Prior knowledge:
Blueprint: E1 2-5, H1 13-24, E2 29-32, E3 37-42, H2 46-56, E4 65-67, H3 85-92, E5 97-102, E6 117-121, H4 126-135, E7 139-140, H5 155-162, E8 168-171, E9 182-185, E10 192-195, H6 201-208, E11 240-243, H7 246-255, E12 260-264, E13 274-277, H8 282-297, E14 303-307, H9 316-326
Parallel strand pairs: 1-8, 2-8, 4-6, 5-9, 11-14, 12-13, 12-14
Antiparallel strand pairs: 2-3, 3-7, 4-7, 5-6, 9-10
The structure holds threonylcarbamoyladenylate and magnesium ion.
Amino acid sequence: MRIVQIDPKKIPPAAMAEAVETLRAGKLVAFPTETVYGLGADALNAEAVTRIFQAKGRPATNPVIVHLSDPSELDRVAQDLPRCVAPLAKAFWPGPLTLVVPKNASLPDVVTAGGPTVAVRIPKHPVALALLHEAKIPIAAPSANRSTQLSPTRAEHVVRQLGDRVDLVLDGGPTSGGIESTVLDVTVSPPRLLRPGLVTCEQIEAIVGPIGFGEDLADTRQPARSPGQMDRHYAPRTPLIVCTQSRVKIDELTRAGLTVGWVTFETSPPQGVVLRTMPSDAEGYASRLYDVLHDLDQLHLDRIVVEAPPRDPRWLALHDRLKRASALPSST
Ligand code: TXA
Ligand code: MG
């Protein structure tokens, strides 16, 4: 594995050329997006995409996102675009919104886990965009972590989890968004939320009108299921508990002699507790969350306790990620 440092404000042509050559050779390149780091391969090369699944230990039933440089590239992987794609693309691309659309025949089945649809987005990060423009190929890229673990917001997170399973890592510094893109299925009417993310439901509904949510949970605005998506996902190795009035929990755990990391809005910790004070706005919180969890996970604590964020639509994606991070490992 090679790591190349890149200043996003001054992208060195030699590094880009190396990345393009690596992708064209069917190998894997990890790169920063505005959300999290992606593990990229040539989306039109089935063997290369198969390597992504192997590197991540990802079940073949979980389809990956295809990244494009421009909406004019949609025809290379998709067809019969629903009418709402154009206004959504205009409003949010480049940016953290992923749209599920009908796939076309030239896109290998491995990308979509054999399904008839493909998830596409145009990322906003200068390094991701430069790579897409230079390579002139659609890039299949899930988050650059091992399956079910925390998504990487820094190059060192990628290196720690994937090591030599990735050929080249473009280190463009920490990502700004901090959690994954919103995934919206536009093959159904009304469009349906599959994963809450940095683009909020309110922002989407301002463009396309009311959207749909998970069937059984419509009134709680929970996302519908994506194929292959597991409950436990985005999880640190340290057991994580989310609760309100978490100071009570902290006291209970420390009295029992456990070492604890506390992710909260408070600024003074009880003695012996590792404190991480979070921003009180949802965007600021998102940009810090995984970074803080990666960091606490390195300390080999007994527990991570997270103070539940406010119940407010702007915090939907964060509640989703925290729920998944705290889900117990399933036995299947
Ligand atoms: O922010 C992001 O979206 C990052 C960066 C790298 O772009 N990527 C990312 O990819 O989070 P990944 O593979 O970790 O998550 C993709 C999500 C999964 O929940 C997957 O099930 C869903 O999108 N998905 C992909 N293709 C789909 C499809 N055809 N239909 C429904 N869901 C799909
Ligand atoms: Mg992922």
